[in-house]
Amino acid sequence: MLGPVERRDAPTPTAPDFDEVRRRAAAVVAQGRLLQQELDSRDLPATTRATREISDRLRAEAAAIRAERTQYGNVVMELRHLVAQLEEALSSRAVIEQAKGVIMAQSRCTPNEAFDMLRRASQRTNRKVRDLAVELVRRTQTNSSHP
What we know:
Blueprint: H1 18-41, H2 44-107, H3 111-125, H4 129-145
Helix pairs in contact: 1-2, 2-3, 2-4
C-alpha cells in the first residue's frame, strides 16, 4: 500500500517528444550510411581521419539519444507512480467519508467533528486513519446485516 501523496517542489515533468527522438535516431543511422559511403570513396589516410570525426559525432549523438530515452523513461515511471498514489488517495478518501458518515449518525456530530474523532483514534491507537475507517465501515456493515 502506498502512503499519502508526496508534494514536491520539483518542476512538473513534460511529456517526451518521441517523434523528435525517432527523428534524431534516423539521422544517426543516415550519418552511419554516409560514413560507409565516404569510406568506400576515399584513400586510407583521409578515410581514417574522416572516420574518426564522423564516428565521434555519431557516438556523441547516440549518447545524447540514450540519455533522452532514459530521461523519458524516468518521467513515465514517475507519472505512473503519481497515478498509483492518486488512485490510492481516492480510494482512501471514499472509505474515510463513509466512516465519517457512520460516526456522524452514531454521535450526531458535524463532518469536521467526525473526522477529528477518527483522527484522534488514529493517533491514540497508532494506526492509519484509512485503516480505522475500513475497520469501522466493515464492522458497521456486518452489524447491519445481522439484525
